[in-house]
Amino acid sequence: MARPAHPPAMGPSKPGPTRTAPPRMPRQFPMQGRYRAYTLFDATGVVYLLLGLLAVRLAWALGDGEAAWSAAMEGFRNPLYLAFHALAFVSVVFVAVRFFRLFPKAQPPRIGPLRPPPQPLIVAMLYATWIGVSVVLTAILAGGIF
Amino acid sequence: MKALLLRLEPIIWLLFGQGILFGTILLTGWVLVVGLLVPLGIAPADALGFERAHRLAANPIGRLLLLAIAALPLWKGAHHIRSLAIDFGGGSRDPMVATLLYAIAAAGSLLAIVAVVRL
Hints:
The structure holds 2 protein chains of 2 kinds.
Chain A: H1 7-10, H2 34-64, H3 66-75, H4 79-102, H5 119-141
Helix pairs in contact in A: 2-3, 2-4
Chain B: H1 2-37, H2 50-58, H3 60-89, H4 94-117
Helix pairs in contact in B: 1-3, 3-4
């Protein structure tokens, strides 16, 4: 039997006239079957939050001057930061692949007189934009251009 | 607090959606170079030396991109951690958890705005 769910999460806020069985968590939640990708997708939120905070810290360091910037960049050589950024890179790619597959399905059938492009075209445009921006940004930041 | 969160839901969802889409598109190159290639010595360290980094970031497009890289992932992160908290801990503590997470995202976003303005 699947374990009980948190009733406040899935139950009605007020009991209705119809009797219902108590809610139960799906058997495969959280790390089996399709729930694995679902849970991991949400868990990338931790990585994104930390990435955002690190970027804020770097932006502040850049405004504080050369010493602060150099110290912040030097800190990124720490193995803990390297391990985190390796995990972050995998997380970002995972989010991209999963989200780009979901994105076309979430489009409205039409916006006014306009219909969205076919789903494969939307996916192709997303991948082209992602890969293109990533290549250009990598080249700029790594000193290849500009 | 729950009523306020519901009223702010459209704004939160907008920022969360931009965090997934534009955050992900921009973070791939950022994490690769800033977090891995330069610290590992695969890309030259002077590519992100102070002078060059400041020159890249201080122009209007650079400021906008740096702001997006810093602020948008905070909203994606806050919203997905909230979702995890509901799945694992139930909805009873959601108003408190959500308020805390969005407060972190909002504070981080404000700091990011100030940081790019003072460059």
